[in-house]
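Record type: ASSEMBLY
Status: queued
Input:
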Amino acid sequence: MNTASIIAALFIILFTVGGLFFFTTSTIGLLRFPDFFTRLHATGKGDTLAVLFSLIGIGIYEGLSLTGFKILLIAVFMFLAQPTATHAISKAGMRYGLQPWKKEDSRK
Amino acid sequence: MIRKTDDIIIRTVARILVPFIQIYALYVIMHGHYSPGGGFQGGVILGASIVLLLITHGLVETKKKIPEKAIALFSSMGVFIYAGIGVLCLLLFGNFLDYGKLSVILNIPPAAARAMGILGVEIGVSITVMAVMISIFTSISTAEDHSKYDKEH
Amino acid sequence: MNTFFLVIGIGLCVLVFFVLYRVVFGPGVFNRIAAISAIGTKTLIIILIMGIIYNRIDMFVDISMVYALLNFIGTLAAAKYLEIGGEKL
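Status: finished
Output:
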């Protein structure tokens, strides 16, 4: 095992574990936050970053090839699509009449 | 009746994404021999791109791009391509869908003719699947009679 | 390296079960849709990791792309349906 592959393995582990960490934080946010909009805030931002980190890690593992290019394409697509989906569903919730959580409201 | 969404973000992103989704669907159809995919899956992705256009840009604007007559024509044209290739093989003294006999017309060796025949059949399948998916979606989503609405626009 | 990706995949599967709590018990239909979208995002990575473990990532990357696409269209369609006054749920 030469030096370059060790450095590549370090970057793979760094990015993939980072992705798992942000997935964990967004899941905790989805479970623990008090109302719909704050939960969406957690998953919308956290999941996008976590997907990008995980895809970068897997892309470094795969290297420069057609598969690596397709993984890059998935990353670009998720970067466009995930915030749009979050925006659409939060706006639908506002139109539907969900009230944002205030500080005075008591936690269940 | 599906109306146009009034949100500019969703409309813009959908308009950007639809052509790339369709190119990806063509890739899935053409590359179906070597990777997962093929006629049915590519047709479903093509249909999904039109459904995305339909739920973001509304029924009226989508009908300008793909009229209902064209959808009906496509859904029968795919079956015609599939059955036509099969009957062509029958006419060349082979079995139904025996692609090797197509080498006489295409002027290539039988193995290459087999690959071309499978590609033609998959293109037919994908056209039919796309048209039937769009037609099912429009039929379900238009609960009311919209012929009057069409005349106003 | 395979063992490392296996551990990451198992961690993601455990996270999916935690999100499933929000799908089952979440108050209202909007929480459920948000949670289902989150599950779809995690599944995309799980499919890619399965491809690495089975050593056939050139196959699984296509499936992953289609999964991301259908997840996006499904979320948009649900949001559209609920926006233009579905029944009060």
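Annotation: Chain B has a mean pLDDT of 86.
Annotation: Residues 8-148 of chain B form one domain.
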